């Protein structure tokens, strides 16, 4: 079994879990550092974000495993190389990478959002939670691109095991439904736009994180200065003069300062909703200032505008690149489809257009080389066909002329043999010699007539003279001519002709000669003293004649091979009869009939079916 298909589900789930673990580790390690988080905020934020991604990724792997389970029979068929594969199942399997990446991205993103927004740790203020969540989603989205490439490759290796004819049907159906036309352009736009979008959003979030950290330090320093300036009495007759007004003004700016009698060490405490409390010692007692850690927003309008402009430019470039790639691939596909057509064979058009992509240009060069080889092959094939036709014409003319020249003296020999036999003064030995001369002469004459008819069939010049005849008379003539074609073997012929067979229109001479070739072959190969010939109605419009070959050496496949022109006769086979068998089949087919090998009464037989009205 091929592991590309048998282990597909296991590999997909493995990649899901691997990418989930890697993304969770990267987010947990990098996100707090990129946003300059520290202390408990960094630890709790990283833990929450990583655990959310892990939970969502595990859920996605479970759901994907359940969904891929329904392809188990298809994957098993692909693994063992079976052809019992449906085109719609392959199309559904080819769409699984896109569904798988969406099925991984959505649960993982929801897990990260839930862990950092509604169930955020106590130390995270809303702005920090939103920033941390957006950065995690950005890293997660960026990681989906290599995961999609890996999944696409994994599924493609399994799809490559499908039978070529089924995959061709899948591609043709998708092309007919318009699913392929804009897919390349859309994927190119996504491939160019998504990294730029992730980079722009990620950079914006990092800039905002640094800005919030700088603002937090500035406000912390402001809180320390406020505490010393407003909560510690100054020298002079009115040590607290102006301090209440300063506290009111500070409160208006979000700083709430108050003093304590007990002296405490300097510390910074982070409370809920992003509130900081700075406590510091004074000359008398201590002071505490509570304020919002940072007033910076998650994403400023200008940063968002820059990100949108960069994304729009990337989308435009991706659209242009995708359109150019689609045009190149369409041109290459068109050139592939035109391979072997008359336009390419004649070389009248340029097979490959100038491609703008290096990979497509290499494909175009390969198509051009293949088209050149097709043209060379086509020219060689045309020359071969012309040479074969010329040889066939020459052979036919040669056979016709030689056979005609042989037939005339042979007819004279047979005629004088008959005249000498009628003389009253020949001896018994002379009569036997004349009988051998006449039999061999008639065998040679039958072979010559076969060669002449074969030459006429090849030249398409054989004309049938149709007449209404009885089936029994044609079969009897065929048996007599069949005896003339063999070397004097005495084989008993048993005729089983159904009564009241209708007359049928055939060429009496040529059809009886064609049937005689099958009878002669059956007599020659017979291992029993009896040969059966049966005739009856195949249907109300056809007569069926079966000529047994009473030999255990022959089966239906052997008889079928004798009727095929490419099969040359063997060394021990009668080559004249082999040619006559194929000619006999051609004569039957000219009458609109068929010749097929069958099995009858435990032996092979030639079944000749002829229409009643040819």
Structural class: alpha+beta
Question: Per the principal axes of the C-alpha atoms, what is the gross shape?
Answer: rod-shaped
Instruction: Please give the count of helices.
Output: 18
Instruction: Report the average pLDDT across residues.
Output: 80
Ends apart, CA distance between termini: 56 Å
Biggest sheet layout: 5 strands, mixed
Approximate helicity band: 55-70%
Percent of residues in β-strands: 5-15%
Can you tell me about this structure?
The protein is of the alpha+beta class. It folds into four domains: 3-180, no CATH class; 215-292; 338-460, Helix Hairpins (Orthogonal Bundle), CATH 1.10.287; 463-611, Histidine kinase-like ATPase, C-terminal domain (Heat Shock Protein 90). The chain is 65% helix and 11% strand. The chain has 18 helices and eleven strands. It has helices at 3-6, 8-34, 39-68, 72-80, 87-94, 96-116, 126-159, 164-176, 183-230, 243-252, 301-337, 342-346, 358-422, 428-459, 471-485, 508-525, 556-562, 575-590; strands at residues 256-260, 267-270, 275-281, 286-292, 467-469, 492-497, 504-506, 530-539, 542-549, 594-600, 603-611. The strands form three sheets. Strands 6-8-9-11-10 form a five-stranded mixed sheet. A four-stranded antiparallel sheet has the order 1-4-3-2. The protein has a two-stranded antiparallel ribbon with strand order 5-7. The longest helix is centred in the middle third of the chain and has 65 residues, at 358-422. The two termini are 56 Å apart. Mean pLDDT is 80; it is low at 566-574.
């Amino acid at each position: 079994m091929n592991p590309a298909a048998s282990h597909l589900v296991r590999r997909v789930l493995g990649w899901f879990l691997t990418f989930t673990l890697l993304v969770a580790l990267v987010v947990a390690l990098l996100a707090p550092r990129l946003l300059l988080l520290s202390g408990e905020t960094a630890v709790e934020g990283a833990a929450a974000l990583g655990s959310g991604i892990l939970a969502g990724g595990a859920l996605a792997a479970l759901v994907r495993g359940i969904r891929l389970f329904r392809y188990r029979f298809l994957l098993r068929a692909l693994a063992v190389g079976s052809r019992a594969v449906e085109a719609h199942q392959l199309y559904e399997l080819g769409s699984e990478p896109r569904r798988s990446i969406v099925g991984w991205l959505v649960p993982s993103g929801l897990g990260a959002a839930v862990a950092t927004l509604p169930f955020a740790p106590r130390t995270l203020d809303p702005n920090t939670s939103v920033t941390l969540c957006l950065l995690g989603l950005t890293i997660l989205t960026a990681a989906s691109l290599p995961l999609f490439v890996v999944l696409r490759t994994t599924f493609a290796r399994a799809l490559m095991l499908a039978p070529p004819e089924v995959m061709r049907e899948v591609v043709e159906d998708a092309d007919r439904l318009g699913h392929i036309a804009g897919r390349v352009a859309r994927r190119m736009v996504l491939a160019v736009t998504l990294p730029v979008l992730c980079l722009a959003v990620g950079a914006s979030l990092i800039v905002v994180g640094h800005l919030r950290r700088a603002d937090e330090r500035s406000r912390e320093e402001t809180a320390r200065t406020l505490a010393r300036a407003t909560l510690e009495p100054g020298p002079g007759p009115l040590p607290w003069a102006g301090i209440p007004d300063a506290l009111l003004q500070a409160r208006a700016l979000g700083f709430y300062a108050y003093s304590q009698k007990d002296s405490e060490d300097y510390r910074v405490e982070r409370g809920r909703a992003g509130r900081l409390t700075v406590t510091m010692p004074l000359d008398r007692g201590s002071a505490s200032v509570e304020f919002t850690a940072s007033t910076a927003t998650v994403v400023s309008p200008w940063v968002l505008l820059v990100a949108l402009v960069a994304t729009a430019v990337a989308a435009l470039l991706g659209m242009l690149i995708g359109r150019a790639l689609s045009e190149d691939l369409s041109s290459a596909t068109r050139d592939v489809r035109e391979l072997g057509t008359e336009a390419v064979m004649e070389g009248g058009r340029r097979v490959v257009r100038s491609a703008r992509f290096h990979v497509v240009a290499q494909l175009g060069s390969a198509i051009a080389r293949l088209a050149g080889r097709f043209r060379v092959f086509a020219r060689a094939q045309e020359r071969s066909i012309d040479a074969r036709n010329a040889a066939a014409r020459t052979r036919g003319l040669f056979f016709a002329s030689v056979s005609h020249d042989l037939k005339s003296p042979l007819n004279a020999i047979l005629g004088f043999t008959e005249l000498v036999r009628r003389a009253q003064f020949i001896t018994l030995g002379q009569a036997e010699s004349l009988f051998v001369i006449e039999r061999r002469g008639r065998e040679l004459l039958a072979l010559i007539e076969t060669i002449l008819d074969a030459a006429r069939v090849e030249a398409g010049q054989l004309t049938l003279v149709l007449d209404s005849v009885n089936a029994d008379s044609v079969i009897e003539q065929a048996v007599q001519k069949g005896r003339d074609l063999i070397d004097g073997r005495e084989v008993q012929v048993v005729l089983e002709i159904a009564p009241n067979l209708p007359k049928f229109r055939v060429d009496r001479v040529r059809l009886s000669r064609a049937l005689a070739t099958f009878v002669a072959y059956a007599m020659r190969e017979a291992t029993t003293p009896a040969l059966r010939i049966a005739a009856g109605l195949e249907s109300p419009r056809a007569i069926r004649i079966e000529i047994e070959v009473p030999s255990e050496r022959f089966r239906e496949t052997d008889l079928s091979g004798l009727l095929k022109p490419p099969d040359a006769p063997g060394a021990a086979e009668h080559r004249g009869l082999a040619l006559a068998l194929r000619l006999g089949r051609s004569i039957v087919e000219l009458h609109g009939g068929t010749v097929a090998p069958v099995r009858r009464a435990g032996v092979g037989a030639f079944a000749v079916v002829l229409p009643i009205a040819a």
